[in-house]
Specification:
Length: 394
């Protein structure tokens, strides 16, 4: 959606295909980081963005064995709002779609699923799609696969991914929110469990971390045992775990971390999770995908409009974005192996608070650096694509 917006803004004929009737998907990330807020500012969308329902995280804390430690302070990072915005991704995507209506060259088709790639003269030349009005054949100078970690388009293209592995899965559910609930605490860590609570306004979206493939053991132990684990993991939720009536209220998110060896082939480019599946750790997936979209528009928008983009140039996106992806994935894998795996596997008899967490908690000025790394990432992008596609512009 962001790439479509940027291409439409540049006057490039762009079609976004969304296979569902709406953007409402529980597993889509909610955290809009400062890197994305800065992009919204550069697009002159930030003022209207603030008007959308959202909450703000101005600091990040983790709870370890019942003790809270503040580790990041976004007030110390020179970015719009000095915070992470928590906004359901379906609202964010809808906001971009509505704002994109000003661009005559941008079209968004809902309930329209790309089903196969079409090829001509040895290159990808478009897609076949199923729409509410029946089959549709779309020709394109460039097809961009943005269809996530289970991308059907990258599979159809035969692009090979390198798996970095993941020792965890996540159980996803919601519980009601109350006025007296703690603020700014995302992670709750005990010696044998990890729980994340995401503020969605009137309820908590909860992520309970389990060992990879451990869902059968959770089911075998029963719902009551699971509810006790949730109550132990975040004690302020103990008085409402009975809102979980069955395991139908608890969804499994299978976690994977991988990246394509090559992100493109003639006529086709993969970005976002289709190019590099990210762990939920750090909530960076949506923001990295947006950075990919901005980089793609910066590199190719003018050439697409002029009809001069060459297939040999497509690898420029991978070259531009690979280093940030590698750094973030390495951080995620390290967190998996050194923190989450020992915790959820029950290997830790006691849980020591890391010295760096203690240092950050008692030294507020140091909290700028994790906030900057989490919020801005590595090599953040700036909007440099042309603006010429709006009604009334050239």
């Amino acid at each position: 959606m962001m790439l479509g917006y940027l291409l439409g803004r540049a006057g490039v004929d762009a079609l976004v295909l969304e296979k569902h009737a709406d953007f409402l998907r529980d597993f889509r990330g909610d955290t809009v980081h400062p890197s994305t807020l800065r992009i919204m500012q550069e697009l002159e969308l930030l003022e209207d963005f603030w008007k959308k329902p959202h909450s703000e995280l101005r600091a990040l804390s983790i709870e370890i064995e019942g003790r809270s430690f503040q580790i990041a302070d976004f007030g110390r990072v020179p970015t719009p709002g000095h915070c992470i915005v928590v906004m359901p991704q379906w609202d964010f995507l809808d906001f971009l779609m509505q704002k994109g209506r000003r661009f005559p060259s941008l079209k968004v088709m809902m309930s329209s699923e790309a089903t196969r790639l079409t090829e001509s003269a040895g290159r990808v030349a478009g897609v076949e799609a199923m729409t509410p009005d029946g089959p549709l054949s779309v020709g394109a100078d460039l097809v961009v696969a943005c269809d996530g970690r289970s991308s059907s388009m990258r599979k159809a293209a035969g692009l090979e991914a390198r798996s970095l592995g993941s020792p965890i899965d996540v159980l996803w559910f919601r519980l009601s929110k109350r006025d007296a609930d703690p603020k700014q605490v995302l992670g709750h860590l005990e010696r044998d469990k990890m729980l994340v609570t995401i503020d969605r306004g009137d309820y908590w979206q909860c992520a309970f971390v389990i060992s990879k493939g451990g869902i059968d053991r959770v089911h075998a132990s029963g719902l009551d045992a699971f509810k006790r684990s949730v109550a132990d993991g975040a004690k302020f939720l103990a008085d409402r775990v009975d809102e979980l009536k069955s395991f139908d209220d608890v969804k499994l998110l299978s976690v994977s971390v991988d990246r394509l060896l090559t992100w493109s082939k003639p006529g086709l480019l993969c970005i976002g999770d289709a190019a590099h599946a990210m762990s939920p750790v750090g909530g960076v997936g949506i923001n990295l995908a947006i950075q990919d979209a901005v980089a793609t528009a910066n590199l190719f928008a003018a050439k697409l409009r002029a009809g001069t983009l060459q297939d040999a140039e497509l690898d420029a996106v991978r070259r531009r974005r690979l280093f940030p992806v590698k750094v973030i994935q390495r951080m995620q894998v390290t967190m998996h192996e050194r923190v989450l795996k020992p915790v959820v596997s029950g290997q830790k008899r006691t849980l020591e608070v890391p010295w760096v967490v203690k240092l950050l908690n008692r030294t507020p000025w140091l909290q700028r650096w994790p906030a900057q790394f989490i919020g801005l990432g590595v090599r953040p992008e700036h909007v440099r694509s042309p603006r010429s596609g709006e009604r009334g512009t050239g």
